[in-house]
Amino acid sequence: MKDPFASSIDKSNKGPFKLLVHICCGPCSVYPLKALLAGRAEVSGFFHNPNIHPYSEFKKRLEAAKTLARHLGIDVVFDERYMPRGFIKGVKAKAADLAKSRSEGPANPAAEERFPSKSLRCAYCYSSRLEATARAALEGGFDAFTSTLLYSTSQGHDEIKALGVDLARKYGILFYYEDFRKGWQQGLDETRAIGLYRQRYCGCIYSRIERGPVKKKS
Ligand code: SF4
Fold it and tell me: Is 2 helix (H, G, I), strand (E, B) or coil?
């Protein structure tokens, strides 16, 4: 039997559908939102990125997303709660859980807890942001949810897709999948044209440390 959650919205159905789009940041959202607005989805946005470090950076990304929402004329719910500690706690708990598992646990559990690897922390980060979006979509009466994380060429694209489908099954709401990476250059060009703030690192404190010194733009 066909699993309705194992793929994106059925392309044979031509009717409109209500779609809630998780917005990770302004620049990553330009291409996906414009592409979706040109299709049959009734698009609304959901900004939810509580782990951006530091707070001044969170505010810059929030303002860039607001500028883009105004530019495109779409409704966006801005979750302005800032909870980096909750993220760090969640990642550490995941590392501790994995350490208990002899077969899957990391080679050096103490180091993993001190400075979690990208694979561990990103899996937690994707999952928490997608889950918040799935819940918001369900509560808001949407038909489906998706994320602009699917635009980034530096994120775990297949992992995000698989998590989206798992959450669709869990919440009984469709996950809209599209490979937005095809519009990478177009998104960059339009970001520059709009004059949106562009970040220099992924977002969390770990990615900020790994990025090293960031020169101020002149
Ligand atoms: S590197 Fe980016 S995707 Fe990974 S945990 Fe940090 S903010 Fe999330």
Answer: coil
